[in-house]
Amino acid sequence: MRKNAHPHSGRAFTERRWILPFFASLLISLTLFLATLFGIFSSPSDGDPLSLDFISFSPMEDSSDYFVESDLKISFDQAGRSNMEAPRIAYLISGTKGDTQRMRRTLQAVYHPRNQYILHLDLEAPPRERIELTTTIKSDPTFREVKNVRVMEQSNLVTYKGPTMIACTLQAVAIMLRESIDWDWFVNLSASDYPLVTQDDLLHVFANLSRDLNFIEHTPIAGWKLNQRAKPIIIDPGLYLSKKSDIFLTTQRRSLPTSFKLFTGSAWIMLSRSFLEYCIWGWDNLPRTVLMYYTNFVSSPEGYFHTVICNTEEFNKTAVSHDLHYIAWDNPPKQHPRLLTIKDFDNMVKSGAPFARKFTKDDSVLDKIDKELLGRSEGRFAPGAWCIGSSDGGVDPCSLRGEDSVFRPGPGAERLKELFQKLLSEDLYSKRCSFQTSESVNRSVH
């Protein structure tokens, strides 16, 4: 019997076993398909049974809900401060060896209880100077009570032409963002800077401006700067040494970037909080990309913020090409501005700028500015409406504080308004972050 059996009968029986599972799975698939089909073409409610409202076969109009970068941007937009409140300004005042007294004088000249202040004395200054600066701040009763002045505990080496100046500025901004939510603009000053208007003048005028404006002198980089700044690769010793030295060039050169355009301008800035939040958080990564590029760039402080803001659609229309400083250059201009003296006083006042640089320590022109523009006495704050004490007997009227949202603007406010009328005119507005040269614009407002 076994010999006469068909040799393939066992295999045929075995292969028939798939038929039952096949038809079972086919029945299940057909059932699911029909359920899905009728589910799509039936309304979840009693509406039109052919309604397709809850499913779309067209491209999504707004896909921002799916990306975390959009959530970050929205969160910062909603956290904006009301323009109805009087503005507040965050200051970084930086110095180096021998600048302790100059920094203290500049601080007193720009002090106001509404503002925030960070002092940075770089690593070249000996520890005793840093201790002296900290002790001075802690011993002042106004600073101790208001608590709006800080000294950076971590000192950095700062090379002006290298990226260490940018790193120090970004660190100060990050500290300001962490420590205080109450500021609208950020200003960087050095110990050789000095104000030409009172803080009452400045805050009064800025109260009528959009909090989104960024004052940053900028122009597309071109000509000799392309070859002497953009193409060389530099090393900043301040990134890895404990003693300051100048940058040095490598033998290598590089091509220009193609994913963003390069801009240059003044290293002295007044930037909005919203733009600096973007620079710190960088939710689309451009600020970090540009920062890495400028790590090896000659005079990177004169290009980093300028390149970021002019390559960002959200902010490039907010850039006003002025650094709010009066600066006098030799003719032809050299790498550093010339020192200001009494001879420059009238031109400083006529410029309408709220700040000026560079001054030597205790130059007589500073005393003239104190007396005629700020109303400040030696060793005291520049007075404002917040100073409500009596000056009888030589007492400092700022020793008694009043309401810090009340301002008493003077002639400096009128000069500043005239400057802003030029800067914010329709003609200059259309040239913001333009790829055309802006030298004529800068000449018209300086």
TrEMBL record:
Membrane topology: Single-pass type II membrane protein
Database matches in InterPro entries: GLCAT14A/B/C, Glyco_trans_14
PANTHER family: CORE-2_I-BRANCHING BETA-1,6-N-ACETYLGLUCOSAMINYLTRANSFERASE FAMILY PROTEIN (PTHR45719:SF9), GLYCOSYLTRANSFERASE (PTHR45719)
Subcellular location: Membrane
Alphabetical UniProt keywords: Glycoprotein, Glycosyltransferase, Membrane, Transferase, Transmembrane, Transmembrane helix
Membrane-crossing segments per the record: 20-41
Primary location class: membrane
Name the record gives this protein: Beta-glucuronosyltransferase GlcAT14A-like
GO CC term (a single one): membrane
Gene Ontology MF terms: glucuronosyltransferase activity
One Pfam family, short name: Branch
